[in-house]
């Protein structure tokens, strides 16, 4: 809300959102003026919750949610960082043309239509809340209300209508402020007849001989099974043993040629058949492959996985296909650090090193990769790893799969006879679910919400959906928030990928974090080095001065070289002697050249004093009025100074004793001589022998002389004795004496006697 509209706010329609007051704007202020004065007190009550007032630069200001910066050169207020939705005094208002309050902005760069997408039980007509209205569909342009958003390009298919699209949109540009959550939307569908690349990576140590033979006989069956799933299917084959270095492999000359009977020479990894649609070639290559031998139980499978994943051109991984790597073994694995046993200290570089013959050329020179290296490579190349392992090792591979994105584990029979069914089941399990992941840095929070296939249910905070069939569409609402602006400017621009695990498609977000102000950059109209505004000793930016070394003050008017012991004395004159807090200017002003420039709360509420220790609004009040009102006294430095005729800590007492004299008593004393006059009223004295009461302390029911005064009348009235016992005489003399009441004892504070 602009400050010029301040007088048009209907405060009866305001609500608090955190510390901010958000209001609807009405043109007719006259109808709402009675409410204005009530809500106008809000800044005083909630100023302690205002996160903006403590920000002294434009950059710090806009990195605080809901804050805006005033760079008006003629601004006369104290705080340039403010909350636009919060009512402020006229003095603190900023002209609209000089308010920097950047909004979150989204640009849709690419939004191609999903391939053959239709919804079964999942509606594309979600209403997701703030910023979006109406039906949202990945193939349609997006509508936004209440946020800055526009689209570039149109939805459509690739050339010839052949491009397969399973994720929409494909690319966005976002400009986001820190601390403000922003929602985007994306859809995923499992396309029909989506290509599949299956690379079979097999342990060919001697113990896997029968598995190799079984795989070669089942090659055609495997191909046929996968072709029933997709007509666009490729198959490849690779094998591994271990590093040809002691102690993994025997390096005796004869063992290097034939480590076991009917065995080929050992090797690390070999790509024996790149991905191809020639499935008959697969069976032949598996048949021709020879087993080999090694010494220790763990194998060099990690070397093989790394090369099979990162050597994309050599293996033949396609850009638009679901990539499956089936890893088959009956043994555990070597990992990073094990290479030192063979004198190999060079870390694995995670790069492709395949010779023309398909062998891993760095096998004997680089250490095994780590689990994290394998995971990063698999994520980067969007490959689903299936560990098809025998029962004796399935436990360790189940644990391994937890640390590799998109990996799964299945039990392989000892002779691999169930390999076809295993791969079919694993593929169906993988393809029937979707899990969204992202690669955002820790500076950005990303949360996923979806209904999955439950159109009538509520959206839940999850990135996974299951039981998906071909053609089903899953809609995701994604909340992004820049948690904190990175210190380095280069880190404030990031490219984020949001992707379904195992699919080489993603939503790419080009994120620009709005962490700075244009007026803080050289070349801007409001940026000037060695500016006259800053006494030529500082840079003028965004309406304030950033002083050069040796200068300080609001306008760099102070010279540190002119102050002895600068580090000690430049603020010494601003700290009150014997201060317990040590706060400059009592925390209520700015120290300028060793003197306090006190803050100003309002035109009528002033802060003053050498250390801003005084004010005219912190005195005692009576009936809600400071010093009982202007006619009674004034507040000076926290103490009421009463006007003539008034006294007391809040000037509520009359400074007169006239009300303490009993009327019609000539020569009477204040409070009958038995009390003191306080604030125009008697405060009676009380002792063991006597307790005085009454407005003028004229009564004393326990004093001895009172008994003598009423003795004769009490005797005649109560007991018919004494000198006045004759009834007529008693009545004549005791007319003004009340009839006595017999009691067991007399209370000291009894005012009836």
Automatic annotation (TrEMBL):
Instruction: Please name the SUPFAM superfamilies in this protein's record.
Output: EGF/Laminin, Integrin beta tail domain, Integrin domains, Plexin repeat, vWA-like
Q: Which GO terms describe its cellular component?
A: cell surface; focal adhesion; integrin complex
Give the UniProt keywords, A-Z. Answer: Cell adhesion, Cell membrane, Disulfide bond, EGF-like domain, Glycoprotein, Integrin, Membrane, Repeat, Signal, Transmembrane, Transmembrane helix
Q: How does it sit in the membrane?
A: Single-pass type I membrane protein
Instruction: List the cysteine pairs that form cystine.
Output: 58-67, 61-94, 70-81, 260-263, 311-352, 452-465, 515-519, 542-585, 547-556, 591-596, 593-627, 598-612, 614-619, 635-640, 637-671, 642-651, 653-660, 677-682, 679-730, 684-697, 700-703, 707-716
An example GO BP is: cell-matrix adhesion
The cross-references to InterPro entries, in alphabetical order and at most eight, read: EGF_extracell, EGF_integrin_1, EGF_integrin_2, Integrin_beta_N, Integrin_bsu, Integrin_bsu_tail_dom_sf, Integrin_bsu_VWA, Integrin_dom_sf
For this UniProt entry, the molecular function terms from Gene Ontology, in alphabetical order, are: integrin binding
Give compartment(s).
Cell membrane
Limits of the Integrin beta subunit VWA domain = 57-517
State the similarity comment. Answer: Belongs to the integrin beta chain family.
Q: Write the protein's name.
A: Integrin beta
């Amino acid at each position: 809300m602009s400050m010029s509209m301040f007088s048009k706010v209907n405060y009866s329609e305001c609500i608090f959102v955190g510390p901010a007051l958000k209001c609807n704007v009405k043109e007719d202020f006259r109808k709402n003026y009675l409410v204005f004065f009530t809500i106008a007190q809000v800044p005083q009550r909630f100023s302690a919750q205002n996160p903006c007032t403590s920000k002294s630069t434009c950059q710090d200001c806009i990195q605080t949610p809901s804050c805006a910066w005033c760079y008006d050169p003629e601004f006369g207020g104290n705080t340039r960082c403010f909350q636009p939705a919060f009512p402020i005094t006229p003095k603190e208002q900023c002209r609209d043309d000089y308010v920097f309050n950047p909004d979150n902005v989204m640009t849709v760069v690419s939004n191609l239509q999903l391939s053959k997408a239709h919804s079964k039980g999942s509606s594309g007509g979600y209403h997701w809340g703030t910023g979006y209205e109406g039906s949202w569909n990945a193939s349609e342009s997006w509508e936004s209300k209440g946020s800055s958003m526009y689209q570039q390009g149109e939805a459509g298919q690739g050339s010839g209508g052949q491009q397969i699209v399973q994720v929409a949109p494909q690319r966005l540009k976002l400009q986001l402020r820190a601390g403000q959550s922003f929602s985007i939307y994306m859809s995923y569908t499992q396309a029909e007849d989506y290509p599949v690349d299956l690379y079979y990576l097999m342990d060919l140590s001697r113990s896997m001989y029968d598995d190799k033979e079984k795989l070669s006989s089942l090659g055609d069956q495997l191909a046929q099974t996968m072709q029933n799933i997709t007509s666009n299917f490729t198959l490849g084959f690779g094998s591994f043993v271990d590093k040809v270095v002691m102690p993994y492999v025997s390096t005796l000359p004869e063992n290097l040629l034939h480590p076991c009977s009917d065995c080929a020479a050992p090797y690390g990894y070999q790509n024996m058949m790149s991905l191809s649609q020639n499935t008959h070639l697969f069976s032949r290559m598996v048949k021709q492959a020879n087993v080999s031998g090694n010494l220790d139980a763990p194998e060099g499978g990690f070397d093989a996985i790394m090369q099979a994943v990162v050597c994309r051109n050599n293996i033949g991984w396609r850009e638009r296909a679901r990539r499956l790597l089936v890893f088959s073994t009956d043994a555990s694995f070597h990992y990073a650090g094990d290479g030192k046993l063979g004198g190999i200290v060079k870390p694995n570089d995670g790069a492709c090193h395949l010779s023309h013959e398909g062998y891993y050329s760095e096998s004997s020179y680089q250490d095994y990769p780590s689990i994290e290296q394998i995971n990063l490579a698999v994520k980067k190349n969007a490959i689903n790893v299936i560990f098809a392992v025998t029962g004796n090792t399935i436990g360790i591979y189940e644990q391994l799969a937890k640390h590799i994105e998109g990996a799964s584990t299945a039990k392989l029979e000892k002779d691999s006879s169930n390999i076809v069914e295993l791969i079919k089941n694993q593929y169906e399990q993988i393809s029937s679910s979707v899990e969204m992941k992202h690669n955002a840095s820790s500076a950005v929070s990303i949360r996923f919400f979806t209904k999955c296939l439950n159109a009538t249910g509520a959206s839940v905070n999850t990135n996974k959906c299951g039981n998906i069939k071909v053609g089903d569409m899953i809609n995701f609402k994604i909340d992004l928030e820049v948690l904190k602006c990175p210190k380095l400017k280069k880190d404030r621009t990031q490219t984020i990928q949001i992707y379904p695990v195992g699919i080489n498609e993603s939503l790419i977000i080009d994120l620009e974090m709005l962490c700075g102000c244009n007026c803080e950059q050289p070349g801007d109209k409001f940026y000037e080095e060695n500016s006259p505004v800053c006494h030529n000793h500082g840079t003028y930016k965004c309406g304030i001065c950033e002083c050069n070394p040796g200068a300080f003050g609001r306008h760099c008017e102070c010279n540190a070289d002119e102050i002895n012991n600068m580090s000690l004395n430049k603020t010494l004159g601003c700290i009150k002697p014997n201060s317990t807090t040590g706060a400059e200017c009592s925390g209520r002003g700015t120290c300028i050249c060793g003197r306090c420039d006190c803050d100003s709360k309002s035109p009528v509420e002033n802060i003053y004093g050498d250390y801003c220790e005084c004010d005219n609004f912190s005195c005692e009040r009576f009936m809600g009025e400071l010093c009982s009102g202007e006619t009674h006294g004034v507040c000076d430095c926290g103490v009421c100074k009463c006007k003539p005729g008034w006294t007391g800590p809040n000037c509520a007492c009359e400074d007169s004793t006239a009300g303490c004299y009993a009327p019609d008593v000539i020569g009477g004393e204040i409070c009958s001589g038995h009390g003191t006059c306080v604030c125009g009223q008697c405060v009676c004295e009380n002792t063991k022998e006597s307790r005085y009461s009454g407005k003028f302390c004229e009564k004393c029911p326990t004093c001895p002389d009172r008994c003598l005064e009423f003795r004769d009348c009490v005797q005649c009235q109560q007991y018919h004795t004494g000198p006045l016992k004759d009834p007529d005489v008693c009545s004549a003399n005791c007319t003004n004496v009340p009839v006595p009441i017999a009691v067991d004892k007399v209370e000291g504070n009894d005012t009836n006697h």
